[in-house]
Amino acid sequence: MRALLHVIVRDLRLALRRPADIVSTLFFFVIVASLFPLGVGPDPALLRQLAPGVLWVGALLATMLSLPRLFADDFRDGTLEQMALSPNPLGLAVLGKVVAHWLYSGLPLAVLAPVLGLQFDLSTGALGVLTFSILLGTPALSGIGAIGAGLTLGLRGGGVLLSLLVLPLYIPVLIFGAGAVDAVAGGLEPQTHLALLTALSVGGVAFAPWIAALALKLALE
Amino acid sequence: MNWFKYSAPAAFYPLAGRLIPWFWRLAFVFAAAGLYIGLVAAPVDFQQGEAYRIIFIHVGAAWMSMFIYLVMAFWGGMGLAFNTRLSGMMAQALAPTGTMFAFLSLWTGAFWGKPMWGTWWLWSDARLMSSLILLFLYIGFLALTHAIDDKRRADRAGAILLLVGVVNIPVIYFSVQWWNTLHQGASVSVKGSSMAVIMLWGMLLVALAMWMYTIAVALTRARIIILEREWRADWVQTLSNPESAGGTAGN
Amino acid sequence: MMHWSSFSEFLAMGGKGFYVWGAFGVTALCLVLEPFFLARRRRATLARLARRLRAEAKTGDRP
Lengths: 221, 251, 63
Hints:
The complex is a heterotrimer. Chain A is 87% helix and 0% strand. By secondary structure, chain A is mostly helical. Chain C is rod-shaped, with a radius of gyration of 24 Å.
């Protein structure tokens, strides 16, 4: 538990030392979301309909943008190797990194999402569910992303490859996430979607770090 | 028979060489019988018209695309668990054929859908979506394993990805179904309740032909991969001495 | 058992020939091209192998 906390705090401190990285990821999210009204026109009814999907896809892409750096720096300076050699299991360290990744990427996205939702003329109820769904769904994105980041660590063209591997695996999160907002907008209850989203996140955070650790050991050999 | 003996490439190579022609023969026989039934003998479907004949190849391709992925995941798991060299080679040997069948299941499905539903593609159908994602998973596997130069790492990384993908497939399938039932209800389902026995036979035979084809092609590719990876081993060198490279290694 | 009365009727597929033959044709093309390219790859691999072994034999058969 101490070790886990240590990794989380350390990764957060490192991330905060370079705020430009976090800010540019968030800015990417803002720009992607703003491009759609420019591209499809200002019709509020159309935008309301597009909003859940567009904002969720934006969140997916923004999360993916920050994934290559999840292990790369620690790999380069040898910290990752130390983690693998330490008595604590590597999966635990990866879990810490996943939690930290969520805190500096998923959480800010969820905070930003309702502001962008306003651009799309979403109702208050839909804005709330949008925020909530991103809050509940992004842990799964960080977890699954860690597997992809581990598998592509140190490969040439790793960034594009990472998106090729990870995006298909993100589809269930996208469907339930956008589905929750869609449901509210259509006057239905979002509970089932949110429950399944939570299940994906719990499963993702619980199992993915151990699989990612397996992938990292391959890269370290 | 000791099956583990054949998990060594040196023993597997000649065995596969002997089996390949037989799988080709079976594939041709099944294909001829299946296509005869499907294209010539089977009567027209009164509801769907002649275009329903696409189903004879579509079902086989769709089955193979899923089945091959499962087999690859099985080999991947074996490779991770027992660290056998052949497992990774088998997954590698199956991947291009699986990708091809995943593509064909989408292609034939589109050519079936246009005359039947009036559209090439439906985003709302769970089965279509999961087939598309299966194709993505295949492409991801190929891209990942080809990006890694170290073959051992490539095999193991590919195996991890395959196993993660296997977990994902039911999730994807049900997620899309959930998503739909909450919205517009299942729009179309490909049910064969009215299918006569003869049509079932046609589908089964074509699927069997594709299965035999897959084995023949995968074994051929596995043999090439063995040669590429293990060319330094003594048995490969005695197998293909410079004078008659094509001759001896061809057996 | 024969469902068709003429070959042209068989080709027309009740007016759905484009769809039926589009599906069957591409499938057949794929199933022919894959073994073809595989055979080519096999020949190339064997030739490369023979070249390598010959080169090694010349330089004195280093392991």
